[in-house]
Amino acid sequence: MMCKVQRCRISSRTVFALQRSASQYKMAPSYESLVKEAIVLIDLFNGSAQCLDAFIEDVSKDLQKMDASHKNFILDVVSGCVEHKKLLDPVIKVFYAQIAKHISRRDCSQFVIICYLLTFALDDLGLRNFSNIVKSLDIKKMQLFLVFFFTNLTTAIQEEWSMIYDAAFVETQWILPLLRWRPEIDLLIGQLAVMSSGNQMKKAPVKTTEPKEFSLTKPKPAAVPVPELIPLQEKCKPVPVSTYQPPKEMQKIEEIKKKNQQRTKELLIEANMNQFSCVKPQKSKHTEDMMTQIQTDLDAKLKFNSFHASGLPPSNKAMGKPVKLNSTAILRQKTLHDRRAEEELQRMQKLVEGGHELSPYLQWQRDMREQDLQEELAMIGRRHLEGRISHEEAAAARVHVVERNQKTAQLTKEETAELMKKYAEQRLQEEKGMRELVQQVADGHKNSKLAKEKLHKFKQDIVREFSKQNQELLRQALEEAQADLLKKFEIIREARTRPRNLPPCDRGNHLDEAQVNQETVRWSLSLQKEQQQKEQQELLERVRSLRKEKQQKEQQLQDAMETIELHRKVSAKAAAIRKEEEQKRQLAIRQRAAEDETNLALRRKLEENRKERERLKQSQTAKAQDTSKPAAFKVTTGQKLVSQKSWEEMEKRLEGYIERLEKRMSLSQTTPTPAVTSTTPSVNVTTLTVTPMILSSTTPGCTALNTSTCESCAPGFLYDNNTLMCSCCSVPGQCLFPGACLPCTKGFYQPLSGQQQCWPCNRGYYTNITGSPLCNPCPAGSFNNNTGADSCTSCSPGFHSSHQSSTSCAPCALGSFCNSSGCAQCQTCPGGAEALQTAAIGCTPCRPGMHKPPHQTLCQICSSGFFQIHWGQENCNVCPENHYCPSPDVSPIQCPGDAFCPEGSLAPSYCMETFFRKAGDTCEFAPVTIALLVIGGGVALLFIILVVLRRRRDTDSELSVARAPLLHKERPQGRYYGIPCDAEPVYAGW
C-alpha cells in the first residue's frame, strides 16, 4: 500500500489482542468492529517481507474462536485490499494530493477499506451496513473522502483505472454500478455533514450588559420605519395550448362528413355501373366445359400466341477458334506440363516402391461426400416441405403471433428506453469533456490567431526584402552582361578591320599543304570503307546465327505445343468422363433424396392440407354465391317457367353453333377463317334471352348496331372482357357505353383511357375512392409502406413525418417529444426538462443537482460549488458564503466554526491546528506561533552578531601578523609592543 505506516510481523502481543477481539466478535452482530479489526490487520501486513497466503493462514488460526461469517468477512476484506492494491493506490494517492494534505497518513488504511467496500462489496453489504461502518469511523474524514470519490469518479479516477484496465470494462463493471448508488450516497454525505457541523457547534459567548450614561440634552434620533415585506404572488397557471386551437370535435365532424360524402359517391357510382342480376343468368357447367374445350382446340391448332425459344448458346465457342500464343505462354504451359508429368512419375515410383495408394481413401471420401450431399438434399427438401406445411398452418396461428409480437415489442421498447437512459448519461459525461476540450481549443485558437498574423507580417517583410534584393541583383547582372557584349563587339570589329599582309613566298607552301591534305583524306576514306565492309560481313554472320537459333527455338516450341495439346486432349477426355459420372452420381443422389420416407410423408401431408384448403375454399365460394343472390330471383312460378324456357332455347342455339364450328374446323384445318380466329368463347351469350338481337358473323350476341357505338373507357375505369357490352367491340379498351367499364377499386388508379388493368398506388400514396385517375400523397404526419393502399396510417406518438408521401415515420430525436398521433414536427423540451430516449411522448423534469437551459438537449450536472435542490430548473445556484456544497443536489451546509468557506466552496478549509487560527475568510498566526517566531528571530540575530564579531577578530589578528616589524635587542628606544629595549629580537604577535 502507499501508506507510510510502520509494519511488523504478528507478535505474541498482537496474537493475544486478536484472540481477545475474536471472543468479543462472537457477540457482535454489526460490521463496525470487524472493519476496525481489518484496519489493524492491514497496518500489520508488510507486502515486501510477508506472503499474503501465509499471513492469511496465521490470522485465520488466531481467529478460530470467532464466528465463521465474521472471520470470513475480515479475511475477505484484508485479502481484497491487498490483491486490488494496483486499483486502490491511485485513488488514495489522488485523494491525498488534492484534498487530504492536512490529514495524517496513519488514517490511510481506513480510506483503503472504504474505497474497497465502495467498489467491490457495496451491493453485498447494503446501504444500511455501509452507513453504519462509515459513521463508526471519523465522520469529517469520511465525508471528505466520499465527496472526493464521487466528484472525481468519472474524471480522474476513471482515467487512472482506464490506464490499468480496458476502458469499456472499467465503465461497465465499476463506474456505472457506482453511479447507480450515487443518490443514496449523496444522502449519506448530507447526513455526515449535518453530524460533523453538529459536533463542532460552539455556543456564542453571553453578551454582558454595558451601562450607558443618561444624555438629557441629546435629541433622540427619529425612528426609521421598518419596511414591510412585499408578499410574493403565486405563480400564474399558464394558458393551455388548447385555448388557441380549434376543438377536436369539429375536426371529427368534418371527417365524418367527408366520409359520408365519399360513401354516397361510391354507392351512386356502384348503382350506375352494376347491372341488374336478373339479366345475367349463369351458364351451365356443360356449356362452360364445351367452351373451354373449343378454346383449347383452337389454341392448339392455330398456335397464334406460341413462341419458340432458342437453346442456350454453346459454352465452348472460344475453344474451337485458334488462339496464337507467344513464346512466354508456350514455355509456361510446357513447364506446367513437365511439372505435372514429373509429379505423376514420382507418384508411380512411390507406388512401385510400396507406397500407400490413396484410391481407397479417395473413394471413401467421395462416398462420404455423396452421402452428405444426399442427406443435405433430403434436408433441403424436408425443409421446403415443412415450410410449405407451416405456411398452410400459419393462418390459424396469426393472432397468437401478433400478441406475442406486441409483448416482445413492449419489452424491446422498455429495454431501449433503459439503454437510451444509460446512453444519455454517457453522452452527458462526453459533452462535459467536450466542452472543456472546446474551451481549451478556443483559447488556443485565440493565441494562434495572433501568432498567425505576426508570422504573416514577418513573411511579407521577408518577401519584400527578397524581391528588392533579387531585382537589384538582376539589374547588376544585366549591366555586367551588356558591358561584356560591348567589349566582345569591339574586339570583333577591331579584328575585322585589321589588314592581312602575307609575303609572296608563302603562297606555294599553301598549295603543297593542300595536296598533302587531299592524299590524307583519300587514304582515310579507303580505310573507312574497308572497316565498313568488315562490319557488314560480321553483321550478316550474326543475323544468320540468330535466324538459326530462332528456327531451333520455334521447333522446340512447336514440339512442346504438340505435347501440351496431346496432354490437354487426354485431360479433357478424362474430365468429360468424370463430369458425366459426376452428373449421373448427382442424379442418383437426388433421386434417392427424393425417395426419402420423411419427404414422402411430408408430401402426403402437404397434399392433404392442400386438398383440405381447396375444399374449404370451394365451400366458402358456394356459400358466398348462395348468399349473394339478390331478391330479384324470388320470382313467381310463371316467371320461373319463362326463364327455364329461355335457358333451354339458349343452350340449343349454342349447341348448334358449336356443331357448325366443328364442321368448319374439320373442312379447313390449315387456313382458319377470320370468323373462327375472332371467336371469343368466354362471351356471356345469355343476354340474348332478355333482348333478342340479330347475331353477327364475328361474335355471338353482337350486332352491327352495337359494334358501331363503341367508346373508350374513361381514366379510372378498365375494360372488362367478360361482359358482352365490352367484348362486342373489336378494339380492346372500348365498350358499347362508358357505364359498362369497371371502375378501379380503392388503392388502384388508371390515368389513361381505354386500359385493361388498373395500377396500384405507390408507397406513400393512396386513394380511397373507386374509379380514381390519380393517387393522393399521404399528408404530413402520416405514412404508407404498402402498394395499393386506400388510406394512410397516422404516425404513432413519439414519431413524426415532416413531408408528404412518406413511407415511414422517424422517431423524435433526443430532447424532443410528440404526445399525440399524426405529428408533423416534434416539439423541443422546454428548459428544465429532457427526453432521455428517442421516440419520446413526453419530457421528464431534471433531477435535483442538474439543470438544462432551453438551448440544450439533455440535463447537466451542476458544476463544483453550485447546487440545485428543486426539480426541473434551468440554472444552478452558486453556493453562498460561509457555506459549502459537497454535492450538487444537497442544500448548502453551514461552515464549521473553525473553518472558513468562501463563495462556491466544495468543502470547508481548515487552518493548521496549534500554529494558525481562523480570522474571517483567512488563517492568521496564533499567539504561540508569533512568540516562537520572535524568539527564533532573536536567536538568529544573536548568532549572526557573534559570527560577525568572530570573523572580524580573526581578520584583525591576520593583519597584525602581516604588518609587525622585526624588533632588535640593541634598539635604544623605549618599549615597543610591551617588550623592553634590552630584550631579544622577537616578532610582534608572538
UniProtKB/TrEMBL annotation:
Biased composition (Polar residues): 618-628
Transmembrane segments: 925-949
Span list, region Disordered: 605-635
Tyrosine-protein kinase ephrin type A/B receptor-like domain segment(s): 740-772
Leader sequence segment: none
Keywords of this entry: Cell projection, Cilium, Flagellum, Membrane, Transmembrane, Transmembrane helix
Basic and acidic residues bias (residue ranges): 605-617
UniProt KW Protein biosynthesis keyword: no
Stored PANTHER family: CILIA- AND FLAGELLA-ASSOCIATED PROTEIN 99
Protein name: Cilia-and flagella-associated protein 99
Higher taxonomy: Eukaryota, Metazoa, Chordata, Craniata, Vertebrata
